[in-house]
Amino acid sequence: MPEFETVIGLEVHAQLKTESKIFCSCSTRFGEAPNTNVCPVCTGMPGSLPVLNARAVEYAVKMALAVHCQVNRRSLFARKNYFYPDLPMGYQISQYDQPLAEHGWVEIPVEEGTKRIGITRIHMENDAGKLLHSDGTWSQVDLNRAGTPLIEIVSEPDLRSAAEAVAYLKSLRAILMYLGICDGNMEEGSFRCDANVSIRPRGTTGFGTRTELKNMNSFRNVERAILAEVRRQVELVEDGEAVVQETRLFDAAKGVTRSMRGKEEAHDYRYFPDPDLVPLVLDEAQIAAWKAELPELPAQRRERFVTTLGLGAADAEVLTAEKAVADYFEAALGHGVEAKKIANWVMGDVLRELNDRGVGMEACRLSPVGLAHLVAMVEAGTINASQARAVFREVFDSGEDPRAVVERHGLAQVSDDAALEAWVREVLEANPDEVARLRAGEKKLVGFFVGQVMRRSGGKANPGKVSELVARVAGEGQP
Ligand code: ADP
Ligand code: ZN
Ligand code: MG
User: Fold this and answer.
1) pTM value?
2) For residue 130, how far is its CA from the centre of ligand 2 (angstroms)?
3) Structure confidence by residue, pLDDT tens digits, 187-217
4) For range 306-317, the mean pLDDT
5) For residue 53, what are the domain limits?
6) Do 329 and 469 belong together in one domain?
7) Are 103 and 150 part of one and the same domain?
C-alpha cells in the first residue's frame, strides 16, 4: 500500500485596519448597528463611483514587502462577477491577471529548523456584507462590512502537513500584526483562510486533484479540517476511487468536511478590468519610502533576541510569535533580572495563564515591571517558586505590585539560618527512624525532611537552605 504525502496551498484573506473602506469613506468599525456604515458606493447604487483608499494601498504594499514579494509598478482592478445577497454590486472588485505583488516567501518554524513557503501573489479586494440567518425562515443583510479592504495572500502548494499549514498561518498573522495593519481576529473573520488540499504517493512529484476547504475560524479548526480531509482522500484512493475537485465546508461539530459545490457548479466569474478605476501605478520613491517605514518584523526580532539577549532559538521563537507577548517580555527587561529568567517566566506562567483562560496578553494586568519584581524576589530567595506562582495568579487580575502582595501576606521566605536550623532539629528529633535510615545512606529521605520542615514553617522556609541543613545536621556526630 503506498504511503501518501499531503500537499496544501492556502488562500488567506486579511482585513486591513484602515479607518475607512477601500472605495468609499464609510467607517470600517466592527460591531455597529446594522447598515449604519453604508453609502451609495458600498451598497452598489447605480451611478456611484469608487475611489481607491491610499492607506489600504500602503498597508497592502507593506505586507508585500514584508514577505519579500516583488511589488508590481502597475496593477489592475478587475470585476469578479457573481450573485449573492451580501454583494449588492453583483461583483467584487478584486485584482486578477495583474495583481499588486508576486513571488514572495515566508519562513515557518519546522522541526529541522525553518522552511521557506512560497507566496504566489498578494492582491487587494473589497469584502462582502454579512448575512444574518434567523430560524431558517428568513435572513437579514448587514452591509457594514461591505467594502472593507482585504488583501488575499495566495501560497504556493508548498505546505506538507496540517501542522505546517497552521505554522504558516501563524507566521503570516504575526507579520500582519507586527506591521499593525490587521487585528488578526479569526473568530470575527478579520483573518481567514481557505485550504486547498490534495494527496499524492510519497516520492512522486506530480499533483493530485485538490479540494478547497472553507469555514474554519480558528487555527485548531484549520488543523482538524485538513486532517479530516486528508483522511477522507486517502480512504477514497485506497478504495480505488478518485478525488473530485470541489469546494467543501468543514463541520466543526462533527469534525468532517462536506461537499458544498462541485466543479460543474463552480462560478464563472467573467473577470474584466473595472472601467471605473484607473490602473494602480506606484513609483519607486513611494515604495522605497514605505519600505523604510517597515517596523522590526518577527524574524528580525527573533534574531535580535538570540544575538543580543543570548536566548536560544526555540525560546526566541515562542517569545516573538505574538507581538504583544514580545513587547511585554522586552518591557520587563532592564530591572536587574537576567533576560533568560524573565523569558522562562513569560514562556511558562504568563503564557500558561493566558492559554488556560483563552485570553490575549492584554488581559494580564500585571505590568512588565511588576513581573520583573516578582522574578527578582524568587532570585533573591525572598519567596520560593510555588509562592511566586500563587502571587502571580493573584496579581494577574489585580495588577498589584507583587512586592506589596508578598508584604501583605507575610510570604517572605525564611532564610535565616538560626530559625531554619531550629526547625530542622525539631523535625529530626521527631523522626528518629528516618534519621537512622538517612544516615544509613537512604538519601531520598532528605526530601521527606525538607517537606516536614516546609510544613512546620507554613511554607515559608527556603527549601534549598533546608535541604543543605538537613544533610548537615543529620550528619553531625557521624564518622
Ligand atoms: P483558484 O483561484 O481556483 O482557487 P489558484 O490557482 O489561485 O486557484 O490556486 C489556489 C490555491 O490552490 C493556491 O494556494 C495553490 O497553491 C493551491 N493549489 C493548487 N494546486 C494544488 C494541489 N494540487 N494541491 C494542493 N493545493 C493546490
Ligand atoms: Zn460606503
Ligand atoms: Mg481558490
Assistant:
1) 0.84
2) 15
3) 889 999 999 999 999 999 999 999 999 989 9
4) 93
5) 11-204+265-289
6) no
7) yes
